[in-house]
Amino acid sequence: MVTLEKNHTNLLDKNIMSSTQACLEWGIDNSALRKRIDQFPRGTIRKFGKTWVVTSEGMQHVFGEKRTSR
After folding, report:
1. Rounded distance, CA 35 to CA 63, Å?
2. What pLDDT sits at residue 6?
3. Are 26 and 67 in contact (CB under 8 A)?
């Protein structure tokens, strides 16, 4: 069993998601997210290869509460 220290990021956290998933959950188009990348607080969005990864906190900051439910 792996134990994470407090200062490590837990990639199993449901608040971390791909931009595609985030756009589905917030009911927005992928292009809307890409146009507003500069508005995300530091550390709430990052690009890995060709994929943007975002946090729920970053999405809420830029787009408000989720517009759709899962």
Report:
1. 12
2. 66
3. yes
